[in-house]
Amino acid sequence: MSRRALLLLAVLFLALAAVFADVAFADGGTVLWRKDAGALVITVFATPAPLTAGPVDISLLLQDRGGLDPVLDASVSMRLRPGSLKNASNNDSSDDSNGEIQVRATRKQAQNKLLYAAAVTLPKSGKWQLAVTILRKGERTEAVETIDVATAPKMAATYWSYVAFPPVMIVLFVVRERLIRRRTKG
To answer: Cβ(46)–Cβ(53) under 8 Å?
Structure first.
């Protein structure tokens, strides 16, 4: 095989690797924040990465602050509301007119059974306040942080790798056939 053909195959392989680089996600997704709260360490994950408006999977890892052992016997709820902590109002009403979302996170919904997970749909981009409430052994622990939600990508931009895959395969097939013809002629 000539150097030119090897170079072409290497470039095509790297292009394919770049196309499918974002396909694999770890369990739980990308870490949004980690915080010590009471006797717990709370780590919040989310997919997709980066976090965008639309369907989102939010997962939490709860650990005992002392030995960082996973906590598996808690009741976890989350409240999301548009706006940052600076803009948050002091009223705790669960009025849906302000876009507030309340959801219960459970281990049943998570693939990784060390995590508590919940699926939500964020209707718009911007800063969102994520409040996590944990009830465990009669003790209530709360943690609140602001998360950034990007605008949802256009549908065509979401599927560009799937659209690009067939032409790349056709080019690879053509290159292969030309290499075989050269080999049989020479």
So the answer is: no
Strand, coil or helix: 3:
helix
How many angstroms separate the Cα of 132 from the Cα of each of 44, 123, 129? 9, 19, 10
- In tens, the pLDDT along 98-138 reads 789 999 999 998 888 899 999 999 999 999 999 999 999 99
Task: Report the DSSP beta bridge partners of residue 135.
Answer: 75, 140
Distance CA 87, CA 97 (A): 17
Residue indicated by tokens 């065509």:
156
Peptide bond into 82 cis (omega under 30): no
Is the pTM higher than 0.90? The answer reads no
Q: How far apart are CA 3 and CA 186, in angstroms?
A: 16
Domain that holds residue 171: 3-185
SS3 assignment for 149-163: EECCCCHHHHCHHHH
Tens-place pLDDT, residues 171-186: 999 999 999 998 888 6
Percent of the chain predicted with pLDDT > 90: 54
Residue 60 CA to residue 132 CA, distance in Å, equals 9
Are the C-beta atoms of 123 and 80 separated by less than 8 Å? Answer: no
The continuous run of DSSP H or E covering 169 comes out as helix 160-185
Question: Looking at the 3D structure of the chain, how many domains does it have?
Answer: 1
CATH of the domain at 170: 2.60.40.1930
